[in-house]
C-alpha cells in the first residue's frame, strides 16, 4: 500500500555529564579542579528529500534516537557533541504531535529543514565550581535530559489541480495525456492507491502541477475504505477538477456523482467545498444518445452555480486543450503561495522529561546544589535582575517544595544555594 502516514517515536541526545577530576602533576601536590564539560546531545532534524515520494521508510521502523553528548574528561577536556539525527521526508509531509494532533512542522514551500527536538546541553565540569572557600569541588553538573516525542507523519500531495472522481471515470488517462506522469491505466472497478502527480506544460513556459487523487467512494469522509487517506491529499490543491463519465458507460449518473463527491469533501473539511471547481465531462467519444446531450444536462445543473463544464475525451484528446487553458486562467487569479499549515505545537514547551524532579545535594558545610529540568527552564525565562522576576522565582521554589527540601537537608541562614551556574544566599522568611 502507498505509505502516506506513519507514527514514530523520536528522541534527541542527552547532554554529556560534566566531569569531576583534579590536576595531578609532579611538583604540583595540590592541583585544582580540571574536570571538563560534557558535549551537547544531538538534535532531531527533519529534512525534505525531493527524491522521496512516500513515507514507506517509516512503516517498518518506529523509534529514532540522536546520539548523546560525551562526558567531559580530565585536564579540562570537553566531551564530543552527539551527532544530529536527520530524518528525510518527502515535500508536503506534516509532522504532528501524536496525542493532540497539533502541527509541529509542515515540510512544504520554503521549509526544507527544521529542528524538531533539541539535544540536551552538556553539563559543566567541576572546574567551574571552585571558589575561595571551596577549592576542591567534588560536584559536576549533569547533562541536560533528552527530549522525546511520539509524532504522526502525514504526506499531503502538493498540487495546483486535484483530479477527483469515482473510480474508472478516466482520471488516470487524463493525467497521462496532459502531463509527464505515467500512471498504470486499466479498466477496473478498484482504484489506484498511489496519488499520482505530473507537470502540465502549456508550451509557452507556463506550467502547473496536476494530481490524480485516488478514487473516492461514498462514506469516505467517515473513514470508509481508505477515505481519510485519500481526502487529506485534496487539502493542498488550489482547484478541484471533477472528472465524470458523461457517457454513463457503467450506469453511473454523472450529476449524482458530483454531488456525492462534494458531500464527502464537505463532511471531511467544509472549506474544501468552497475551493474553485471545474467539471471535465469525460468519455464524450462514446456518447451515442440521439435524444439528449448528457453534457448539456450537466451544464444546466452546474454552470448556474458558477462551475464551468468542459466536454472532453481523455482518450482522443478532444476538448483537453480548452480545458487546460481555462484552468491556467483560473490559477493565475489565485494566490501563488502553496497551502502551508501553521505550527501549533512547540516541543520545547512540552518536553516529556521536563517534570518537577530535582536533586538537592550538599557540597560542603555551607553550600548546596539544586538541579532539575524544570528549574533550569524556569531560570531560562525568568529575569532575576528585576524585583518582580526574583519574587516570582522565590515563589516557584516555595510552591514546588524545593525550599522545604533544602531545610530538611540542613541549610542555614547565610548558606549558599547553587543552581546552574547561579548562586544565592539563603535566608529563611
In words, what does this structure look like?
This protein is an alpha/beta fold. It has three domains: 1-155, GTP1/OBG domain (Spo0b-associated Gtp-binding Protein, Chain: A, Distorted Sandwich), CATH 2.70.210.12; 161-333, 3-Layer(aba) Sandwich (Rossmann fold); 357-429, GMP Synthetase, Chain A, domain 3 (2-Layer Sandwich). It contains eight helices and 18 strands. A six-stranded mixed β-sheet has the order 10-11-9-12-13-14, sandwiched between helices. Strand 5 (93-97) and strand 6 form a beta hairpin. The longest helix has 15 residues, at 254-268. The protein is elongated. The model is unreliable at 185-192 (pLDDT under 50).
Task: Give a short overview.
With 429 residues, the protein is an alpha/beta fold. The chain has eight helices and 18 strands.
The CA-CA distance between the termini, in Å, is 66 Å
The helix content is 10-25%
Q: Report the CATH superfamily of the largest domain.
A: P-loop containing nucleotide triphosphate hydrolases
Q: What string gives the helices and strands in order?
A: EEEEEEEEEHEEHEHEHEHEEHHHEE
Content of β-strand: 15-25%
Q: What would you report as the Rg, rounded to the nearest angstrom? A: 31 Å
| Overall shape | elongated
- Based on the coordinates given, report the CATH architecture of the largest domain: 3-Layer(aba) Sandwich
Strand order of the largest sheet: 10-11-9-12-13-14
Please write the CATH class name of the largest domain: Alpha Beta
Largest sheet: 6 strands, mixed
Number of strands: 18
Give me the secondary-structure category.
Answer: alpha/beta
Chain-averaged pLDDT: 82
Amino acid at each position: 500500500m502507498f505509505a502516506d502516514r506513519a507514527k514514530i517515536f523520536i528522541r534527541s541526545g542527552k547532554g554529556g555529564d560534566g566531569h569531576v577530576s583534579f590536576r595531578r602533576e609532579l611538583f604540583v601536590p595540590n592541583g585544582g579542579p580540571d574536570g571538563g564539560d560534557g558535549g551537547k546531545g544531538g538534535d532531531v532534524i527533519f529534512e525534505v528529500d525531493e527524491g522521496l515520494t512516500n513515507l514507506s521508510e517509516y512503516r517498518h521502523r518506529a523509534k529514532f534516537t540522536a546520539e548523546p553528548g560525551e562526558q567531559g574528561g580530565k585536564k579540562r577536556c570537553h566531551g564530543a557533541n552527539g551527532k544530529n539525527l536527520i530524518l528525510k521526508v518527502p515535500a508536503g509531509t506534516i509532522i504532528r504531535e501524536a496525542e493532540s494532533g497539533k502541527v509541529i512542522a509542515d515540510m512544504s514551500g520554503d521549509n526544507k529543514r527544521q529542528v524538531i527536538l533539541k539535544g540536551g546541553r552538556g553539563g559543566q565540569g567541576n572546574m567551574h565550581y571552585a571558589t575561595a572557600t571551596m577549592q576542591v569541588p567534588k560536584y559536576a553538573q549533569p547533562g541536560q535530559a533528552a527530549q522525546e516525542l511520539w509524532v504522526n507523519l502525514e504526506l499531503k500531495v502538493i498540487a495546483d489541480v486535484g483530479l477527483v472522481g469515482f473510480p474508472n471515470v478516466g482520471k488516470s488517462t487524463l493525467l497521462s495525456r496532459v502531463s509527464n506522469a505515467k500512471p498504470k491505466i486499466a479498466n477496473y472497478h478498484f482504484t489506484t492507491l498511489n496519488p499520482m502527480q505530473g507537470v502540465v506544460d502549456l508550451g509557452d513556459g507556463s506550467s502547473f502541477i496536476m494530481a490524480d487523487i485516488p478514487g473516492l467512494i461514498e462514506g469516505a469522509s467517515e473513514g470508509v475504505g481508505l477515505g481519510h487517506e485519500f481526502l487529506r491529499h485534496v487539502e493542498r490543491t488550489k482547484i478541484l477538477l471533477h472528472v465524470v463519465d458523461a457517457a454513463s458507460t457503467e450506469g453511473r449518473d454523472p450529476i449524482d456523482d458530483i454531488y456525492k463527491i462534494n458531500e464527502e469533501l464537505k463532511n471531511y473539511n467544509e472549506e474544501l467545498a468552497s475551493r474553485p471547481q471545474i467539471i471535465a465531462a469525460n468519455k464524450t467519444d462514446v456518447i451515442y444518445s440521439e435524444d439528449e446531450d448528457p453534457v448539456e444536462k450537466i451544464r444546466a445543473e452546474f454552470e448556474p452555480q458558477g462551475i464551468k463544464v468542459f466536454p472532453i475525451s481523455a482518450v482522443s484528446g478532444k476538448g483537453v486543450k480548452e480545458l487546460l487553458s481555462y484552468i491556467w486562467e483560473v490559477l493565475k487569479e489565485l494566490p501563488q503561495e502553496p497551502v502551508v499549515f501553521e505550527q501549533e505545537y512547540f516541543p520545547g514547551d512540552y518536553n516529556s522529561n521536563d517534570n518537577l524532579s530535582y536533586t538537592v545535594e550538599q557540597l560542603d558545610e555551607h553550600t548546596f546544589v539544586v538541579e532539575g529540568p524544570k528549574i533550569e527552564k524556569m531560570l531560562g525565562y525568568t529575569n532575576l535582575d528585576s524585583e518582580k522576576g526574583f519574587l516570582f522565582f522565590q515563589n516557584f521554589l516555595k510552591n514546588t517544595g524545593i525550599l522545604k527540601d533544602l531545610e530538611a537537608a540542613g541549610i542555614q541562614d547565610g548558606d549558599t544555594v547553587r543552581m546552574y551556574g547561579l548562586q544565592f544566599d539563603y535566608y529563611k522568611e
